[in-house]
Amino acid sequence: MAKIPSVKKTILENGLTVVSEFLPKVRSVAMGITVGTGSSSEEEKNLGITHFIEHMCFKGTEKRSAFQIAKELDEIGGRINAFTSKDMTMFFAVVLDRHLNIAVDVLSDLFLSSKFDFKEMEMERGVILEEINMYEDTPDELIHDFFAETILKGHPSAWPTLGTPQTVKNLKRIDLLEYKAAHYVPDNIIVSFAGNIWHYTAVSLVKKYLGGLKGKKHHLTHLHPKMESQLKLKRKKIDQVHLCLGGRAVSQMDPDRYAFTVLDNILGGSMSSRLFQEVREKRGLAYSIFSSVMPFRDFGIYYIYAGASKANYRKVLDLIMIELSSIKKIGVTAEELKRAKEHLKGTLVLGLESTSARMSFIARSEHFYGKTITIDEIFKKIDEVTQDDILRLAERYFSDKCLTLTMIGDMPRLPKLELAL
Fold first, then answer.
1. Which of 64, 98, 188, 202 has the largest count of CB atoms under 10 Å?
2. Phi and psi at residue 379, in whole multiples of 5°?
3. Domain that holds residue 319
4. Which of the residues are catalytic?
5. What pLDDT, in 10s, does the model give residues 237-254?
6. Are 59 and 205 spatial neighbours (Cβ–Cβ below 8 Å)?
7. Alpha carbon distance 359, 261 (integer Å)
């Protein structure tokens, strides 16, 4: 007998997509409304507008105040929140299955009918400016935006999700309303559910609350960033030097994305990775060091982060370059490959134990691929990765032609560095 898929999809007449995963053994349901717009959809003049809209949606609707939005979810033991990333905005709620109608009502209300009250907007502008200030005072987070801004210079994905103090100060109510009207349209929206809910129930609820939404998506031109080797320093009076070193990588659509994820895991994606062992465990040169890959729809970047003292950061950089060169020239062992594969598979499954995680997973899968990539399919792709694949990708992407280094620290000038692989 054929296995009945647990994830189902329906596209409503207005173009809105509904996806749901039925998990009958849980007592909760997670719901998310995902809009295919993030900071990479913005222009220089309105940086931070997507994030500002997300905040304002919680500040009161025609029938609920900001307090009532919070109160209605609190009194049923639920959670409601939202986030903005480079490529999407998601509003979500998690509740007991018997309270789902309330969650859908509240979430749909704030999504569709937020008032964008002038006084509330001025107050929230101050909140966002403080959020930017807080971020500026957190160098181990700021360095990642500084790296993206440098390596992706001139591309929309280079811009900070929060915007800049100047752009946030300049945004007007009409700007937010016009941007929301242009991007919060049915064929740019995915409503996802995971938990104890049948698909026909999910579809019925979405039709009831969001079926009247109209509008057509404004299609953006996707640009490929020009990545060149760069060195940049941001001076701050802090004890450590925070650095990000990296370059071009695979995109979300690249068949090699699974192999690159395995490569990243071996390099610095776990406690048994090369960089963690060489830099922290064997030499004690840094507390935090890891590698990561950021695959966007049309391109990707990878980077290695480390925080070290002014006395040690050069040694850390040397060790990073040695490991990049070693993988590029020699490759990885069969033992490393096996360990990385099992670590990735275990991390994936453990990360999908909650209904909220599964809801987010199917939404992202639908957003990028137009379908749900199953865990079994991902496992198969991971298992197919070979040592030759790792060597091939290292030879292609660990190149000094677009190797970029950014640093934040209390240094008078950028040190002379030789970044050659």
1. 202
2. -55, -45
3. 230-409
4. 54
5. 999 999 999 999 999 999
6. no
7. 22
